[in-house]
Structures are given as structure tokens and as C-alpha cells.
Amino acid sequence: MELKQSLAFGVIFLIIELILSFFIASIVKLLEPNIPIFQILFYRYLLSLPLLVIYGFFKHGSKILQVNNVRLLLLRIICGFLGLAMWFLAVAKIDISLATVLFNTMPLFITILSAIIALERVGLRRSIAVITGFFGVIFIVLPINTSFDFWGVLYAILGAIFAGLMFVFIRMLGKTNASIPTAIWYNSFGVVISAIILLLSGHNLDNSFSLLMHKDLPWGYLLALGLLASFQQFCLAESHRYADASALAPFHYLAIPIGVAFGVILFNETITAKFLVGAVIIIASNYYILFREKTHSQN
């Protein structure tokens, strides 16, 4: 199915997706002290399915679950699940603003993985840009003191790696598969896997199941989580169907000011000069990588 490219529509969908993602992150940060992350994940996946299924039947009818590339779908599902789990774990442990900056090291890891997995030639300039980007990360997180959360930082960086891979697979899938069937398969997988992890992590399976379905859970927050996730996934998939990933890439950095705003307004996070300098270094290095990749592809 041919789809007319439109950068404007792609950017609009992407900005909406970013805003929704930070509302979701805020809910996760509020819930996590009292609810395990994989229980939050379970309800995020489960409660996002009804709207997606209803819309899927309306748009695709009996072809609601049809996909044309099972291998790519599985890769998208696995990377998406791991990326989201790492992101939730990161925002639960560290400031949303810090997690956002670290998460936006994605292009640095994509460059490294392209060289290792796809044997893509990475020139000296892009190599220097990658090293510079990681210097920005080190500049932000050092010096390590009693307030430093190693696991939170690690989760954010792992999330960047898996999310970068996921975006590549989403774009590849968007050329041959409709976004809603892909989202339904992804969320169904998430429901099953997050439930299994939650149940197996408990010492007693009966108690774990009781925890999963407890009547005193904050259902208002969980329902909001699922509803927001439904719209977020739709916007994410549509943004990559209307515009190329390379064209959208610069606009992903709008996540940093949006994330900082959420952190400061909702959680009274403090933004230091060191944080801002490190963020600028990371963004500048990523922009240079994108510029070099675009130049290389044109040549």
C-alpha cells in the first residue's frame, strides 16, 4: 500500500507521542513506590488493547491481525518490550530529566551497532562524534556520590539501545504492515510476558496472582496509563509511516525540553548548569552523526 510522505504530519504525530510518553512516565514514577514495575507494565499493555482492538476492527475488519513480515514483527516486539521495561525502570529510579537525556543517546548506539552487526563503515568523524557524545554522558553523571543511582543510569542507557533498534524495525514494518495490527500483536505479547515475569518473581504464585488483581489497586491511574498508551503507540507508528526515520530523527530531541519541563513542574527536579552542558554535548554529537549519515547516503 502506497503512503504519501508528509514530514509535517510525521512531526505532529511524533510531538504528540512524546508528550503522551511523558504523561505515562509521570504515572509510572507516581505508582512505582507501591506497585512493582512489571505489574505496571502488565496493566499498561492490557488496558491499551481495548481501544486498539476496536479501532483495528473498524479499520481492518477480519484482517485485524494480519502481518506480512513475522520476523520483523518479532524483532520489533522484543526490542519494544525491553526498551519500555528499561525506560520504566529508569524513570522509577532517577529523575525524568536525566533519564530523558540518557535515553536520547540512541543515535550513538545505533552507529556502534551498525558497525558491529551490519558491518557498516563508520568514518573517523562519526567515531569522534560518538566518543564526544559519551563524554557528555560522563560529564552529566560524574562525580559519583551517594546520590548516584548506577542502576537507574544503566536502565536508561539500555533503554536507548533497545528503543533505537525498535525504531528501525517500526519503520521497516511500516512499509508493508498496518500500524494497528502491529500494535495489537506487540501489546498482547507484553501482557503475557510481563505477567509471567511478575508471577515468577514472587515467592508464592497464589500471592503473586492476588497481587496482580488486587481490588485496592489505583485503577484510575492504571486506566489512564492504558488509554494514553493506546494513543501513544498509534502516534508513534503513524509518525514513521508519514515520514522517514532520518527526517524525524532531529525532532526526537524535543523530548529533552519536554522531559525537563515534566520533571521540574511535576517532581520539582533541579536542573544544574552541568546537566545542561552535558545535554548540549550529547545533542550536538547526535546531530553531527545524523548530518554525516545523511551526507553519506546522498553520496
Task: Note down, in words, how this protein is organized.
- The chain is mainly alpha-helical and 299 residues long.
- It has helices spanning 7-31, 37-60, 70-93, 96-103, 106-117, 124-141, 150-174, 179-201, 205-212, 219-242, 245-248, 255-267, 273-298.
- It is globular.
Short recap of the structure:
The chain is mostly helical. 78% of the residues lie in helices and 0% in strands.
Shape: globular
| Low-pLDDT residue spans | none
Q: What is the element string, with H for helices and E for strands?
A: HHHHHHHHHHHHH
Write down the domain tally. 1
Number of strands: 0
Q: Let me know the average pLDDT.
A: 80
Strand content: under 5%
- Portion in helices: over 70%
**Radius of gyration over all CA atoms, rounded:** 19 Å
Query: Count of DSSP helices?
Result: 13
Distance separating the two termini: 29 Å
Main sheet, how many strands, which sense, barrel?
A: none
What structural category characterises the helix and strand content? Answer: mainly alpha
Q: What labels describe this entry?
A:
13 helices; mainly alpha; single chain
Topology (SSEs and partners):
Blueprint: H1 7-31, H2 37-60, H3 70-93, H4 96-103, H5 106-117, H6 124-141, H7 150-174, H8 179-201, H9 205-212, H10 219-242, H11 245-248, H12 255-267, H13 273-298
